[in-house]
Amino acid sequence: MVQSAQFAHSLEGWFGFLPLWGWAAVSALLVIYMLALPFGGLATYIERKIAADIQDRIGPNRVGPIGIFQFAADAIKMLSKEDFVPKGGDRFLFNLAPLFVVVGSCTAFAVLPLSKYLIGADVNIGVIFILAVTTLIAPGLLLGSWASENKWSLLGGLRAASQIVSYEIPVALSILPVVLISGSLQIGQIVEQQGWTVFGENPATYHFWNAFHNPFTFFSMFLLFVGGLAETNRIPFDLPEAESELVSGFNTEFSGMRFGLYALGEFCDVFVMSAMVTALYLGGWHIPFLDIEKLGFALPTGLVAFIQFHMFMIKTLLVVFVVMWLRWTLPRLRVDQLMGMCWKGLLPLAFFNVLGTAVWMWVFKGQSLMQLLAGHG
Amino acid sequence: MNHLVEFSASLQGYLAVGAVLFSLGIFCVLTRKNAIGILLGIELILNAAGINFVAFSKFRTGLIDGQMVALFIMLIAAAEAAVALAVILRFYRLKQTIDADEASIMRN
Amino acid sequence: MNKVLLLAEILTVASAFVVGLHPNILYASVFLLFTFCGVAVMFLYAGADFLAGAQVIIYVGGVTILILFAIMLTQWLYKIKLADIRNKMLLPGFLAIAVGTFLYRALHQMVAVLPPQTPEALEKFTSTPKTALIGQALLGGYLLPFEAITILLLGAMVGAVWLARPE
């Protein structure tokens, strides 16, 4: 928050009419409206284009130059559909359920470290805040499936909620090694300590990207990625919204903008999970081996923020691309295979990683592989 | 209006919210026939106790012990909710209802 | 700034009223979820940042899901009406109000007995991050309750899985 406050203060000459907490609120809202919602919309288009590439066809190419306005056409179509509630369904819960998903995913955008100077709200409990806020998605799925008055929706919703709740544990345990290494829950701190530069002096606590800190964190990154796939109901953990089995799972009866909100929430959640993998393991907004603030000549803060933001987005979008790539590559897991993999596979591995990281920190006194190599070399 | 804002941010405000939640929890436990409804009341009561502990920790002692107790309350509430719901599921398999009045096998 | 706290307290109390009085048990559970969120915001303003996060994760992500699962697994087959309020609400209402007032007055006595904090101390308390302190306490003075809780949670997990096993 300190860096954001400094950045906000530098803008105060232009817009000095808001107090500091007003700027905090505005910055959090800006991130949600300028980043989360456009991404959610464009992600539908990107997914269809990636699917088309993998399946050797063209994909949307009518609306706009390369079909890029397809998401706007979809949104207009959804908004113009009839607003109905299934007969016997619960109107209040039917309306409320998609809101849980959207609120749960979009609130997490406020703590994403887009750049050293562009964190909406760098709270003390950053990592726990993201975990807490993304658990708001599960009641949304359950209530939506109940309010649909449809047995298959209910089955899909129960499976979805149990999957999300089960996979939260490996996700939380995969975040724990990073917290052990950085000694802080603040995401800004965690990312800042991943800045290793070969062109100057490194402070004692800085190490290269957390994924390469020790072999256990390398493994944890993949566990976090897999857990994130399961949390967001993406293939191969796609059974709750399986197209061929449960009609469309828990969102069968949702049409029009309500379905649009579900899809938006899911894509925003994919972004949040990818951003977590990037920020916690892949160095966030750091350029590898280079620190652009210590180049010898001072760059303006805006330019630094710009470059760092683009680095963060490149890494996050690469992870999102892998998520979408997997969707059209892997088959779907059965529900018993899914739950078995969580409780009998990922959970013991996650425990093992936490233990391994703790032992590494004790044996090597907290140094990463890069620091050990630099110390000896 | 300012008095209300001042009151809400003071110790008395937190205690008042805790007391209201506690009495609503008791009302819920005493009134509901549904066994899960009784569990809702119990969760309200436990939350009210947690609010009280945290409020005293901030406004009077300045130590972290109040928050430790509130943390343990949360953990115990989670464990108790899990076991209570397992018992309710068992009871439902036995009697096909979760009316608390039907749990009277040992009476007479 | 404190208007947000007032709003959170009003939201908590209003949701708790719906939990206590609504005949439909599913609506009561949803408003219990809102109550938990309101309590989490109140924790944030009382300097309990880690506790607020833990409240949302444990209660909203755990207990509420459990309750919703139990409701859906025990009600959906038979389509029975979800109304369960008795006709006789007078005596429980009186009892609840009496107990609540008595507890508030009793705690109010404690408010006068203990010495209040200075505003600087309050500010310092609210702004220090508590996660490190909680961690040190868990492995320090509160080690015995910590170990006891782990045994309790293990027993609860095993007991719940055993009780709910399929036949």
Query: Please, how many helices of chain B?
Result: 4
Classified by CATH, the class of chain B is: Mainly Alpha
Helix content of chain C: over 70%
**CATH class identity of the largest domain in chain C:** Mainly Alpha
> From the structure provided, what is the oligomeric state, counting identical versus distinct chains?
heterotrimer
Round the Cα radius of gyration of chain C to an integer and report it: 20 Å
- Main sheet specs of chain C: none
Number of strands of chain B: 0
**Separation, N- and C-terminal Cα atoms of chain B:** 57 Å
Which whole number gives the mean pLDDT of chain B?
A: 89
State the end-to-end CA separation of chain C: 56 Å
What overall form of chain B do the CA principal axes indicate?
A: elongated
What radius of gyration of chain B results from the CA coordinates? 18 Å
Unreliable stretches of chain B, pLDDT < 50, 5 or more residues?
none
What proportion of the residues of chain C form beta strands (DSSP E)? under 5%
Major β-sheet profile of chain B: none
Shape label of chain C: globular
Mean pLDDT of chain C: 87
CATH topology of the largest domain in chain C: Four Helix Bundle (Hemerythrin (Met), subunit A)
Low-confidence stretches of chain C: 76-85
- The name CATH uses for the topology of chain B is Helix Hairpins
Give structural notes:
The complex is a heterotrimer of chains A (377), B (108) and C (167). Chain A has 377 residues and is mostly helical. Chain A has helices at residues 2-11, 20-54, 70-79, 91-107, 126-134, 137-147, 151-182, 187-192, 215-231, 257-281, 301-327, 335-363, 369-376. Chain A has one domain (2-376). The model of chain A has no long low-confidence stretch (mean pLDDT 85). Chain B is mainly alpha-helical. Chain B is 80% helix and 0% strand. Chain B starts with a helix and ends in a 13-residue tail after the last helix. Chain C contains seven helices and no strands. Chain C has helices at 2-21, 25-45, 49-75, 90-113, 119-127, 131-138, 143-163. At the B-C interface, helix 1, helix 2, helix 3 and helix 4 of B face helix 1, helix 2, helix 3, helix 4 and helix 5 of C.
